[in-house]
């Protein structure tokens, strides 16, 4: 039986050849319903893009894909360092896929299983919707998730909920009773994101202390220093302004500190600030933050994937890494 062609896929999906090509090479420009039809047709026909046919004929291509929002969040570079160190002396090529945001689904996730360029995949913090999960399983692409969990895949998770509790306890011990939070805005994603888990336990722990966090003292913003700065000014303009602010991560905390400086507030005497990650900016700023085991999460993820590749029958692993508070000048 002859191999299926792009013409067969187009005919099966009821679209033009150019639309099929666009779906594989630039899926964000194809409507979701059309993309679903094309990917389903390609699966049914076992279609391989021509440039990948020879590669697919090999038993293994020697490549591991790593997908994460690298350019948007500095912490992911450190997770990638953990992967690179673990594979430095091994015959694996690491292929990096950069995505814009951890708060929105990536269209590239839909096409990775079809391209057949990889022996395995590590996905960091990018929500995996049911359609993508089904395709990864159907295409038998070994996959390990980092900073999120799914029953179909091994995972390396961070105890994000624990992070919210740690910060709440620390600020309560410092005597703060009016607290605020600046976190990243969720972008139409049904999955529970790390920042939501942190905020939920931050609020519940504060409520247990009798110092509830009302919605009026929470700001959800696009990721970046400037949106965080504006949000901090809004919180500090409230009649009962917070005396401490918990930031979704260290870069958001930079925006909060900038707003405090613009208002002439003394940190931590008049405003305490806590970040998350313990990124490279935290120590120079004297920022109190929650340290994530970033490099360790990358190392464990790729080791888990390599174990899975060497023994496909190996049971899935679900690993949870703990967090620690790093106290510095801002509290």
TrEMBL record:
The keyword Ribosomal protein does not apply. InterPro entries: Cro/C1-type_HTH, HTH_LacI, LacI/GalR-like_sensor, Lambda_DNA-bd_dom_sf, Peripla_BP_I. Residues 5-48 form the HTH cro/C1-type domain. One of its GO terms (molecular function) is transcription cis-regulatory region binding. Keywords: DNA-binding, Repressor, Transcription, Transcription regulation. It comes from the Bacteria. Residues 4-58 form the HTH lacI-type domain. PROSITE patterns: HTH_CROC1, HTH_LACI_2. Pfam families: LacI, Peripla_BP_3. Signal peptide: none annotated. This is LacI family transcriptional regulator. It comes from Polymorphospora rubra.
